[in-house]
Structure formats: C-alpha cells, structure tokens
Amino acid sequence: MPKEKKSKPAPEFDSQRETRVLLEQIRSDVETVSEQHGSIMGKLQEHDKRFEKIDSKLEQHDLQFLQINQKLVSHDSKFTNIEGRLDRIEKVITGVMSDHETRIKKIEEKVTL
User: Which of 5, 28, 30, 64 has its CA 20 to 30 A from that of 79?
Assistant: First the structure.
C-alpha cells in the first residue's frame, strides 16, 4: 500500500509565498521612499539656509535704501534753501542792474546835452 502523500498546493496557488513576496516589495518601496524623504529634507534645509541669507541681504538693502532716501530728503531741503537764496540774489542783481541802467541813461542824457 502506497503511502499517502501530503498534497502541496501548486506554486501558482501558494498565497503565503505570494504574500511574503508582496510584503518584501512593499518593504523595499518603503525603504526607497524613506531614503528619498531624507534626501528631500536635506535639500529643504539647504534651501532654508539660502533663503535666510537672502532675507538677511534684503534687510540690509532695505536699510541702505532707507538711509539713501533720508539723504535725498536732506539734499532736497538743501536745494530748496539754495534755490530761495538764488532767487533773492537774482532780485538784488536785477535791482542793481536796473539802477545802473538808470544811472547810465542819466549820464548819457547829460553828455548829449
């Protein structure tokens, strides 16, 4: 009498084996995702540092623009003051020229007489 052989399922129906294979693939994919996540986080930290440097530079430029703007306001005030002084000098010169023209005309009238 032949011994009864324990029947093994056909390989295409071995669900435990297929499950182990799928779990190993999932584990591999999770490891890959984890490695990529670490790489991405490192790059994000590098970008954060670069952005902090850029922000610092922009703050310096803002301060410099503010200082330049204050100097321009000061210069505008000085130019306004100078313009006022030049207007007064021009009026004085115009008055002196008018007086000289009047004197010259009087002298010319006396000479022609």
Answer: 64
Each residue's pLDDT tens digit, 3-21: 555 666 555 568 888 899 9
Mean pLDDT for the stretch of residues 88-97: 95
Query: Coil, strand, or helix at residue 76?
Result: helix
Helix (H) or strand (E) holding 96: helix 15-112
Side-chain-facing half-sphere of 33: CA atoms under 13 Å: 6
Residue 66, sorted as left (phi over 0), alpha (psi -120 to 50) or beta, turns out to be alpha
How many residues in the chain? Answer: 113
